[in-house]
Amino acid sequence: TTHILNLIAHEQRIIFVSPLRALAEEVLQRAPIKEKGYLNARCEFENWKFIVCTPESLLVSTLELKRTDLIVLDEIHLFYLWGDSFREKLIEIRELIFTSCERMIALTATISDEVFEIYQQEVALNFEHNYLMDLGNHKLNNPPFMHLTLPKFLMTDDLLKILIEFSLTKGRVLVFSNLRKRVDFWQANFQHFQVLTCKGGEVPTFVEELKKISPDLILSTIALSHGVNLPSVGCVVFDGDFKDESFLVQMLARAGRRGESFFAISHSGSAVRKLLRSSAFPKVTPYLLLIKILLWKCNLWCCPKLPMENDT
Length: 312
Hints:
By secondary structure, the chain is α/β, with parallel strands linked by helices. It has 13 helices and twelve strands. It has helices at residues 2-6, 21-30, 55-60, 76-81, 89-100, 113-122, 157-168, 180-189, 203-210, 245-252, 271-276, 286-297, 307-311, and strands at 14-17, 36-38, 50-53, 70-73, 104-108, 130-134, 146-150, 173-177, 195-198, 217-220, 235-239, 263-267. The strands form two sheets. Strands 2-3-1-4-5-6 form a six-stranded parallel β-sheet. Strands 7-12-11-8-10-9 form a six-stranded parallel β-sheet, with helices on both faces. The longest helix has 12 residues, at 89-100. The radius of gyration is 22 Å and the shape is elongated. The two termini are 36 Å apart. The mean pLDDT is 85.
């Protein structure tokens, strides 16, 4: 994004399109010019050099794309993953831009080979003037130092609650649930902690609340998997099954963004285990650690140390 902002002085007009409104608004604030704005159906945009919008707001606006415009599609993989599921307007905006614009930059950090092949096919007729910047190569720059994984039949709600309580002794915890009702469930079980929740459609509200308080525990659906900068997170917990690897990379990347260490918790049937299998973790016996955590919960053991803590 920084590279794109540096281009503003050299372009007649840049149109930055992101499927994540909170991220789009953050980019708008960082733009170093006054001739900028967030596009909607009623705004006056004729003098803007930097226009930020979501795909939906671009489609309902009266903005006409010019041959000289530089179009930037942020998180391009989401235009496919979400467009083919619950946001059909992302397909429409792909067709509009790929067939009408001459100059485009697509940004991603977690595009899969399958999605990349589709992208290549769609822009093949105009590929010379379209560029894809893969900033992450579908990999974690800072993987967790430990992954605590247990069989799915053992990972009951009661046990997961104990593991979350233990993790809170090590720092802030981020829990991803695959169902909205699970976010409500965990919120009800951790009322004695400072908790922030986020579900689909609530990201702007979450970002504003995050400016006011410093939560111990963040509970979310996949809504926080992309485009939101969180404070330091010590543990990422996966509650449920998440199969898309690109989303898992983004979820894990919510932690360790400043180089700090963190660990992850999931059941062994989760795709998280497959994703992290190649990581060089310390040799840890999860069952031994689990026994120590359970003894700690029963006040029969002092708070267990994690492998990295033993090394320091």
